[in-house]
Amino acid sequence: MKKNKVVVVGAGMVGMSYAYSMVNQGTCEELVLIDIDKNRTVGEALDLNHGLSYAPRKMKIYSGDYNDCSDANIICITAGATQVPGETRLDLLHKNTKIMKSIVGEIKKTSFDGIIIVASNPVDIMTYVVWKASGYDKSKIMGSGTTLDTARLRFSLGERLGVTPKSIHAYVMGEHGDSQFVAWSYALMGVQPIYQVASKKDSKVKFEDLELIEDEVRNIAYKIIDCKNSTYYGIGMALARITQAVLENESSILTVSSYLDNKYGHNDVFIAVPSVVNETGVREVIELPLEKEEKVKLDDSIEIMKENIAKLDI
Ligand code: 6V0
After folding, report:
1. Rounded mean pLDDT of 6-25?
2. Distance separating alpha carbons of residues 72 and 114, to the nearest angstrom
3. Is 16 helix (H, G, I), strand (E, B) or coil?
4. pTM of the model
5. Cys staple from 66: which of 106, 200, 214, 275, with CB 3.0 to 4.6 Å?
6. Cα of 168 to ligand 1 centre, how many Å?
7. If pLDDT is split at 50, 70 and 90, which confidence band does 167 have?
8. Going by C-beta distance under 8 Å and a sequence separation of 6 or more, which residues neighbour residue 175?
């Protein structure tokens, strides 16, 4: 029987929230933790193992090294520097590019032939760096993209409309960052377009609220960072969801950061668009006929990614 093995590179807050979600959901059979701080992975693996009595399935969890990548189904990269005061976003870009390249260099020494999921920020650009530096098939590499932002949007709309976020079918697209946007023309509450819902006199969400909700989703991470320095549970659960889609060969539609191969009129860039995710990685990018304004937003977001990629030494 095929083994479901996941390697997490970067056992910090995001990596461990992801690992914790997988232990609680029984997502995989084998879970390996790698970090430059070896001691940290030893402690984290022990701590997680102590919860196994209460987990839904048997799992093998341990602190490992890059040799463990050879027969892994998934490597999830959550390693990286986070922005410190006085540092620009571009500083972070260069720092994390170096980290991604060093991690990929280690992975390439192994016979790894699975799927790589990248979460390190700026995630769309780091996904491109991992692809370029690895030379692996583009469909086997994806970033967490706007899976977290999409979940935030669904939560926000669900709260306002009084329905579960699971019944909100709406997507945040573009950069996981300031140039992201909501494809409102495809947003549904159940089977009802949000535009139709918002046009009702007694609706709890009005047209004028939509821009407000979009801004709130775009900026909510800053609020969390103000309150507790960083965000990790939401992204941990989003990563576990992507992992499940791959391991269970689900063909689920998720807003991961995917390579655009002449889709939406672009090439040579990773950006979040609805994509079909299964055991082959990104099986297909769904090309939505976006409204004119939405297409301009996507083009602008892609332009920002390309400008930043051009500054990098990959
Ligand atoms: P953290 O808690 O500082 O953890 C980072 C970990 O990476 C630490 O344990 C480091 O030791 C480790 N690390 C650093 N360099 C290496 C290396 N070369 N090899 C192996 N391990 C290394 O940070 P946190 O977990 O909060 O964030 C990690 C990354 O996720 C950052 O880039 C964040 O910006 C990013 N996030 C991405 C999100 C998304 O939606 N994609 C959301 C939140 C954070």
Report:
1. 98
2. 6
3. helix
4. 0.97
5. 106
6. 30
7. very high
8. 122, 124, 146, 271, 272, 301, 304, 305
Report CA dihedral (257, 264, 262, 103) to the nearest 10 degrees: -10
Amino acid letter for position 20:
Y
- Across residues 136-148, what is the average pLDDT? 98
Dist CA 217 CA 155 (whole Å)? 10
| Mean predicted lDDT score pLDDT of the chain | 96
Known catalytic residue: 50? Answer: no
Tokens of 97: 């590019």
For residue 124, which of 152, 108, 149, 146 has the smallest C-alpha distance?
146
Beta-bridge partners for 30 = 5, 60
Contact present, 178 and 133 (Cβ < 8 Å) = no
For 36-51, give the DSSP string.
SSHHHHHHHHHHHHTT
The reply, when asked if residue 240 is annotated as ligand binding, is no
CA of 163 to the centre of ligand 1 (A): 34
- Interface pTM, i.e. ipTM: 0.99
Count of Cβ atoms closer than 10 Å to residue 74 Cβ:
24
Residues with CB under 6 A from ligand 1: 9-15, 35-37, 40, 78-80, 82, 96, 99, 102-103, 119-121, 123, 144, 148, 176, 230-232, 235
**Neighbouring residues of 300: CB distance < 8 A, sequence distance ≥ 6:** 179
The shares of helix, strand and coil residues in the chain, as percent rounded to the nearest 5, are 45, 20, 35
Joined tokens for residue 21: 């979600």
Give residue 68's Cα distance to chain centre.
23
Amino acid at 56: P
Q: Look up residue 202 and give its DSSP letter.
A: T
